[in-house]
Amino acid sequence: MTDTTTDTTPPEEAGAEVPEEAGAEPTPEETGKGANAEAARYRTRLRETEAERDGISERLVGYQRREAERIAGATLSRPADLWLDGVDPSELLDDDGQLDPEKVTAAVAGVLDGRPQLEAGRVRPRPDHAQGGPAAPQASGWQDVLQGRKA
Q1: Which residues, in sequence order, are CB contacts of 11 under 8 Å at separation 6+?
Q2: Distance between CA 41 and CA 25 in Å, rounded?
Q3: Which residues contact 91 (CB under 8 A, 6 or more apart)?
Q4: Which residues of the chain have pLDDT under 50?
Q5: Which end of the chain is more exposed for a tag (fewer CB within 10 A), N or C?
């Protein structure tokens, strides 16, 4: 029979490497890749994060625009007219980055100064061609002339 012996020494003492964490990413030296691969991985993650940030920023500006239009809708007949004078949504924010209703109201007042017809509730005259102007002349015939009626 052959005698098999088992070594009961812990791996640390035997000189074997023990991974620190089971879910930890291997270092570039362990995978055989250099610093360039690691830098490329970080650049890729950076670009993804920047794209996500830009998307979130665009959505936030959209929400702020709609909220500003909601506030302007109380005064303007069409709330989107708030942007006619080139108002930038960032101009309507307070120091904390929140939409300031007073700044929106001031921007609406600026729009109405130059275009008062945009005010909500303003009655616009409708042309009525039946009003005003001379009456249409009636056709006169020989009978009117003989009876002494003037045309």
Answers
A1: 17, 18
A2: 12
A3: 103, 107
A4: 32
A5: N
